[in-house]
Specification:
Helix content: 25-40%
Structural class: alpha+beta
Oligomer: single chain
Strand order of the largest sheet: 10-11-8-18-15-16-17
Strand content: 15-25%
Radius of gyration: 27 Å
């Protein structure tokens, strides 16, 4: 445990030393996965049964990123298990699985902020907060940073215990035993895990656990099948993988719902009698801002809502045109607050070499699965079947809505059919709990696609002004960026961590600078002086999180501007970037290798190629990517024919999953570049269906080439990194192809 300045001060408080020491002690927790008949428990992470099957707890939401396989692989490699006998089980909400790296980033988002809890992931005060609040959220690619070492330590302890049990039978020292492929061996003798599990579970493990010398990596050789194929793939292929909408309970009924527009619309009139003849209708439940129908099947409930034709009263309807005006005014005349600086204290004087403005529209998540939750309330006990990235916060919100205790609220974690941070919100869990209370039966609430689009909290809009000074030698003498956007991360924190409504959250953080809303705007390039200013803007549209978050906004502006700056200086874009990367040779290597992979031709006029790069940091881990996009010739809609990326993400645990995540991130970035934008008119979003988002279809998917650079650094999750550079790479390619510079997202159907 790390000694921090605050801990030293707290321990020195008069008469408080003993009390502080007690408060900082780690608490023991009951096993989150209690063993069933024939199973032996090994701490919070592992169970082993009599057949030798190893079950690994998964405390993170599986939403396609492969965390189910990654954690199981980490445990299997450290334990020495046979991959064919490894299973997983979603872990219930438990303080044993606190996500400390994410807590270190998000606890400052509380309102009022709690800086005393933002020291570092190994700070004892932060650890205590995360465990007390059962903070196990899945977000920002923190799963490996949070759970790789605890999972390894649990597996190492279990391996030692199995060796001890075997050594007792063979009358040898346990350190002499070897473990591999599900067996403990010593010379020609061997015993399987199943035969040793019960004896081993009753022993005391060594402290500290004897970790293997080499941390888990992917041993797959080129051309061979994956050494650790995904555990969830077969069930997803044959349809047996269960999502929240697949839950079925005895006596369960189905609910559909209608909401008012964002944000403070209230339910007005509806014609209850008009739905009386709908077959299967069982009841109607009216909330302050929604109307639900309950029936024997979902379609009947949906038909009943259509017949009742609910109307809502607006308060401050969202208008895209007004939001754009507010952002423009803030960017031009608003008071900026400095959130990041580097280099000299003052920037260069005189006229900037180049200054440009970029705009980004609100963006939708585009999940395949809409919001769904099953709730059962019986004898004062609420049960929820829900896909959520923040299970404890969802559980607490539902309990609070019903006025019951948290201990009487049980959440069964379900996987998500895509999330992209959409399932950090849990409005539907509260609604399902309230509807279940009113109808007195288990109820499954499922939002229609229209309701999903209407109520999602999009990535916020932004307007960005960037200027730069180039020195006589071509160096970057000054860089200044100013962004007008809502304090989206602070707003989100007030909703999630303080259970505020969207409106109350915006009011609470109004006019506050938000560094997380500006992440990525300080460029990776070496500048004698660089600064970033945030102009916080309060909009009638609530701001949400979306895959890539601020990086998807800021990288578009920075890398589009860098391309323009290179051309203003008469420099070739790739060599111009590399010359400015004296402090980051790893990113320079990515640029060189991406250029080679794409057969980079310099991005000359008519070349149809564009370049962008980006880096992200999470504690000691960091990720880097360089991307070359190639667009098709012609004057029709934009069509990207190839994406060539060079990626460095530290130590790769599972290469197959890493490549899947990178490919998926690139395609998601393609959707954000050419579509996903939302337009609001009188509070109503105009994009009602997925087809309205201009998302890439199979025929639109470009050829993708990925150069995954081997590294020994700390593993970095590649899920969000690839999203960032896609839009600027495409915009730069379009300029090379047409001479037309696009500075607004989405790029839509600009001629190529």
């Amino acid at each position: 445990m790390r000694l921090t300045r605050r801990r030293l001060i707290g321990g020195a408080a008069a008469g408080g030393g003993l009390l502080v020491a007690w408060q900082l002690l780690e608490r023991d927790h009951l096993p989150p996965l209690p063993p069933t008949e024939g199973e032996a428990q090994f701490g919070a992470w592992l169970k082993i049964d009599r057949q030798g099957v190893v079950t690994v707890a998964v405390p993170q939401l599986e939403m396609g990123q492969g965390i189910t396989t990654l954690l199981a692989q980490i445990a299997a490699q450290e334990l020495g298990a046979d991959w064919r006998q490894v299973a997983t089980e979603p872990a219930p909400v438990s303080a044993a699985f606190a996500n400390l790296p994410l807590a270190a980033r998000w606890t400052p988002l509380r309102d009022p902020p709690v800086p005393a809890l933002a020291d570092a992931p190994d700070d004892a005060l932060l650890r205590r907060w995360a465990r007390t609040h059962t903070f196990t959220a899945t977000a920002e690619g923190t799963a490996l940073a949070a759970y790789e070492l605890p999972c390894r330590e649990a597996a190492a302890a279990a391996r030692a215990l199995l060796c001890m049990a075997a050594a007792a039978r063979w009358d040898i020292r346990w350190e002499e035993c070897e473990v591999a492929a599900g067996f403990v061996t010593h010379g020609n003798r061997r015993i399987g895990f199943g035969a040793l599990a019960e004896d081993a579970a009753g022993l005391t493990p060594p402290d500290p656990p004897p970790l293997r010398t080499e941390p888990p990596t992917d041993p797959t050789l080129a051309g061979e099948p994956p050494a650790f194929p995904r555990l969830d793939a077969p069930a997803k292929v044959d349809g047996s993988w269960l999502f929240a909408g697949d839950v079925r309970l005895p006596g369960m009924v189905h609910a559909a719902i209608r909401h008012g527009p964002l944000d403070r619309a209230e339910l007005g009139t509806f014609d209850r009698a008009a739905a009386a003849d709908v077959p299967g209708l069982l009841g109607v439940v009216a909330g302050k801002r929604w109307l639900a129908a309950v029936a024997t099947d979902w379609w009947s409930a949906e038909r009943a809502l259509t017949a009742m034709a609910p109307h809502f009263r607006f308060h401050d309807p969202v208008q895209s045109a007004r939001m754009a005006e507010a952002l423009d005014a803030a960017l031009e005349r608003g008071e900026g607050q400095r959130v990041a600086t580097s280099g000299a204290e003052d920037g260069p004087a005189g006229r900037a070499t180049l200054a440009q403005r970029y705009t980004v529209a609100p963006a939708a998540h585009g999940t395949v699965e809409t919001a769904s939750c099953t709730a059962r309330l019986a004898d004062g006990r609420l049960e929820l079947w829900l896909a959520t990235q923040a299970p404890e916060q969802a559980r607490a919100a539902a309990a609070r809505a019903l006025g019951i205790s948290l201990r009487d609220t049980v959440l069964y974690p379900m996987p998500a059919g895509g999330s992209f941070d959409r399932r950090l919100e849990h409005e539907h869990a509260i609604e399902a709990a309230l509807i279940a209370r009113e109808v007195g039966r288990p109820v499954q609430l499922t939002w229609s696609r229209w309701q999903e689009q209407l109520r999602l909290l999009p990535r916020p809009p932004a307007a960005i002004q960037i200027s730069a000074h180039l020195g006589a030698d071509g160096s970057l003498a000054g860089f200044a960026a100013r962004i007008a956007t809502p304090p989206a991360a602070l707003e989100f924190g007030a909703r999630l961590l303080d259970n505020r409504t969207s409106w109350a959250a915006r009011e609470a953080v109004a006019n506050q600078a938000d560094p997380l809303a500006c992440e990525g705007l300080l460029p990776p390039y070496r500048a004698a002086h660089a600064r970033v200013e945030h102009v916080p803007v309060t909009l009638p549209l609530p701001a949400g999180r979306l895959r890539g978050n601020a990086h998807g906004i800021t990288c578009f502006a920075v890398e589009s501007f860098t391309d323009e700056l290179a051309r203003a200086a008469g420099r070739e874009p790739l060599s111009f970037r590399i010359a400015l990367l004296g402090d980051d040779p790893r990113l320079a290597l990515c640029l060189q290798r991406a250029g080679r992979l794409a057969s980079w031709d310099g991005g000359a006029p008519g070349s149809r190629q564009g370049l962008a790069c980006h880096r992200m940091q999470l504690g000691p881990a960091s990720g880097r990517i360089a991307l070359v996009a190639t667009v098709a010739p012609g004057s029709g809609p934009v069509r990207v024919t190839r994406l060539a990326a060079s990626v460095e993400i530290g130590r790769v645990i599972n290469r197959d999953i890493a490549l899947q995540q990178i490919e998926g991130g690139l395609l998601y970035g393609l959707g954000l570049a050419l579509g996903s934008g939302l337009e609001y008119r009188d509070g109503i979003v105009r994009q009602e269906r997925l087809r309205d988002l201009n998302l890439p279809r199979l025929a639109d998917c470009p050829e993708i080439g990925i150069d995954l650079i081997e590294s020994t650094g700390a593993p970095f999750d590649p899920g969000e990194l690839p999203v960032a550079p896609v839009a600027p790479a495409i915009a730069n390619a379009l300029f090379a192809a047409t001479g037309r510079r696009l500075r607004a997202l989405p790029l839509l159907s600009a001629g190529a």
